[in-house]
Amino acid sequence: MPELRKDPVLGRWVIISTDRARRPREIKDGAPASCAKGCPFCAGRERLTPPETLAFRPPGGRANGPGWEVRVVPNKFPALRVEGELEKQGCGIYDRMNGIGAHEVIIETPEHSRRMEEQSRDSVAKVFEACKLRIADLSRDMRFKYILVFRNEGVDAGSSLSHPHSQLIATSVTPKRVKEELNGARAYFDYKDRCIFCDIIRQELSDRVRIVYENAHFVSFCPFASRFPFEIWLLPKRHQADYATIAADELGSLADAMLVTLGKLAGALNRPQYNYVLHTSPVRWPRKDYWKTIEFDYHWHIEIMPRLTQIAGFEWGTGFYINPTPPEDAAGCLREVDH
Questions:
Q1: Active-site pick, 103, 163, 165, 217
Q2: Is the pTM of this model over 0.70?
Q3: Which of 142, 189, 208, 263 could form a disulfide with 339 if both were Cys (CB 3.0 to 4.6 A apart)?
Q4: Comparing C-alpha atoms, which of 205, 203, 148 is closest to residue 181?
C-alpha cells in the first residue's frame, strides 16, 4: 500500500509508492518507439490492461475488446490505490496516511504513433469528454479532494510508454501547488471582487503580444511571468471554476485550441517533448469556510510546459525559474507557424 507523508516545514505531501518502480519501459534513448510491439495500449491487446472504466466505441461494441476510439483504464502500476481507508495518524511530530486515491490512464487513440496534435478534432474532443466524465464520477467519492489530469509527452517529460495517453490521479489532499493558486485567486477576489484569471484574459486579449491562438471559446497565450521557454496557458473565455461543468459544445472548441496550440509548438520547435496539466477546482464537500467563493474566484485552465531546459540547483534551492526566452518573443514565433 502506498502512503502519504507530510513535510512538517512546507506542509506538502509526498507519495511513497514502491509499485511505481515496476512500470514497463518502452521508450529508450529519448526517442519514441516507432513499433507497437508489446504495447499494452494498442487495439487488440485490451487483455493486457485492467478492465476499462470508460470507453467510447460504436454501438454494440464489446467492452474490453477492440473497436474503441478512446479508452480509460486503471493504471496497472498506480501511484495511489483506490481500495482502503485513509487511516490518518501521527508518528511523533510527523503525519502520514494511507496512499488512497485513483490513478487512471486515458488511452487517447488506438493508433500507436499518432501524437495529440496529429489527431482529429473529434478524437481530441472525445479525450476531453472522457476527462470530464471521469472527474465527475470520481468527485462523488468522499475520500477524494482533488483530481488532476496530466499528459507526459516523451521520455524527458516522464513518459514510460510512447502510445498516446494522458493520466488522471485523484488524491485525498489538495496539492500544495494547487492550493497556492487557489489562495492567490481568492485573495485577488477579496481585494477586487473579480476573478484574476478573467482579468488576465482581458489583459492578454487587449495587449495581444503574448497571444498564441484564440477561437470563440478559448484562448492560449504565453504567460507574462513564464517559468519555462514557450510555456503556454490555455483558458476558457467563459468563467468556469470546475472543468466538469464544460458545456458539450465547448469540447470541440477546446480540442481545436489544443490542436492548433500543440501544432504550433511542434512546428516551431521540431516536435518538442512536453507536459501539460489541467488545473480545476478541488472537490468541495460542505464544510465550514472551505473555498466558499471558489465559483467566483477560480478559473480552470491547462498549463503546457515544453521540456527545453532543465531545472537545476538555483531553481530547486530558491523556487525562482530562469527563463531565457521572453514570452512575447515565444508567442510571436508561435503565431508565425501556420497550423
A1: 165
A2: yes
A3: 263
A4: 148
